[in-house]
Design goal:
302 residues; D-Maltodextrin-Binding Protein, domain 2; alpha/beta; 10-stranded mixed beta sheet; 14 helices
């Protein structure tokens, strides 16, 4: 991305420093306190990783209005990013099924059908209490359905002896090995399996509508940065078709819907759309501990 940015913007000079989310947070807050901020922007492994910077420090700043307008003109959902985040890449959450255990015609019409008796012991997914991605998907459903319907559904899954795992990869392996019929997880697990020639699973596209959800992995602008205009220019470039095509060239899922479709034409159905995870939940990433406790209280702790 740095090379492509430099080629597209002839006067731009950019350097990429890689570190974990905790390192990013520590560096930005300490540099702000010392008055020696060195970064203009940062890219993270999810909105949750950046939430503390927004709520507990002044280390990041909102996008200026012209950038928000630019993102909207490009087709990004306003409620998916808010004022602090700019688009980068996404991780769609999908419902997959073992094609050796159940056919597409036998799948339920919606998530609600997973509580049917025929799925007793046949469902697997990462525990939402792990807060590894499934939590955002569940919070989105909670807001869409309302608490009563959501909790009735969650209890129905427990009554069906759902198998909970400590990671999405483990859940996919259980399903692909034939131990379960159906489950939730990141689309990347299935993509990697197909690349390795393991076709025992497919995606239940019809079942997912209208609540297909994707996790947003965004960027943010750094407060009191040395080159704020350059940070904004990089944010704009990442959101453009050209920037999104660079992300797609890595095999990652771009955030811009049409580029995502073009990058994975054999995987994504035409005109299929995803909702941004927790787009309908106020301050979700500022209250993740409360949500974790809620999931545990529902019976989804490990």
């Amino acid at each position: 991305m740095m090379d492509a940015f430099g080629e597209a913007i002839s006067f731009a000079s950019a350097e990429y420093v890689q570190m974990g989310d905790s390192g990013i947070a520590s560096r930005l807050t300490s540099e702000l306190r010392s008055g020696n901020v060195t970064a203009d922007g940062t890219i993270s492994s999810g909105r949750g990783a950046l939430a503390s910077l927004q709520t507990q420090s002044d280390a990041i700043r909102p996008n200026p209005d012209y950038l928000l307008d630019f993102f909207e003109e490009l087709g990004y959902p306003e409620d998916g990013y808010g004022e602090y985040y700019y688009p980068f890449n996404v991780f769609p959450i999908v419902t997959y099924y073992n094609t050796d255990r159940i056919s597409a015609d036998e799948l339920p019409d919606s998530y609600l059908g997973m509580t049917e008796d025929r799925f007793d012991g046949e469902i697997v997914f990462e525990s939402p209490a792990i807060m590894g991605g499934m939590d955002a998907f569940w919070a989105t459903l909670h807001a869409e359905w309302g608490e009563d319907q959501f909790e009735e559904w969650a209890q129905g899954l427990l009554d069906n002896n759902v198998q909970l795992t400590d990671s999405g990869g483990t859940a996919y392996a259980e399903l692909a090995n034939g131990n379960n019929m159906i489950g939730f997880g990141l689309i990347d697990d299935l993509v990697r399996a197909r690349q390795d020639g393991e076709p025992s699973a497919d995606i239940a596209w019809d079942m997912m509508n209208p609540h297909a959800t994707e996790l947003v992995f965004p960027g943010v602008l750094v407060n009191e940065s040395p080159n704020p205009a350059m940070g904004e220019l990089f944010a704009a470039y990442c959101a453009t078709r050209e920037g999104q095509e660079v992300i797609a060239s890595w095999g990652a899922f771009p955030a811009l819907p049409e580029v995502k479709q073009e990058a994975f034409p054999d995987l994504l159905p035409d005109d299929f759309s995803f909702e941004t995870g927790v787009f309908n939940v106020d301050n979700y990433y500022q209250n993740t501990e409360e949500w974790r406790e809620y999931y545990v209280d529902l019976g989804y702790g490990l």
